[in-house]
Amino acid sequence: MLTPSKINKFTFFKLPAAYWTGVRVRHIDEKSCHVTIKHKWINQNPFQSIYFAVQAMAAELSTGALVMSHIQDAKASVSMLVSRNESIFSKKAKGRITFVCEDGLIAQQAIQQTLKTGEGITFWMQSVGKDEKGDVVSSFRFEWSVKQK
Predict the structure, then answer these.
(1) The pTM of the whole model exceeds 0.90
(2) pLDDT (tens digit, 9 = 90+) per residue, 59-104?
(3) Which of 22, 67, 107, 110 would be a feasible disulfide site paired with 121, CB 3.0-4.6 Å?
(4) Residue 111 CB: number of other CB atoms within 10 A?
(5) Residue 87 to residue 105: CA distance in whole angstroms
(6) Nearest-angstrom CA–CA distance, 121 and 65
């Protein structure tokens, strides 16, 4: 299984924009992934909160890390790609924001299905970002596409 440390190292080399803006995986298991981002100068917008694209990177990583983890567990060659996304912003993102995706089993089932049928599969995963008070600041949905190579 992938660990937060391994994923954070991966972001340093393969997703440097996420790494340098402070996106960090804090927890991952087969069902969920938690990613944090703290408001800093490098990731702010002109309104003194976290820029929407940085929030999107953190949210996407919380879903994508689960997809990567289940592909690795399957010990198969599977490609993955975001095909669509939707977002809702409900409050300024200030302080430390934690994005949580709890759709790991959806990813696992889709990967098993693509390996069984050989067909490409699409599925949606959600990530919700909350501030330190527990208030939702933004919510993202990503449509992932997986296919056996």
Answers:
(1) yes
(2) 999 999 999 999 999 999 999 999 999 999 999 999 999 999 999 9
(3) 110
(4) 25
(5) 22
(6) 17
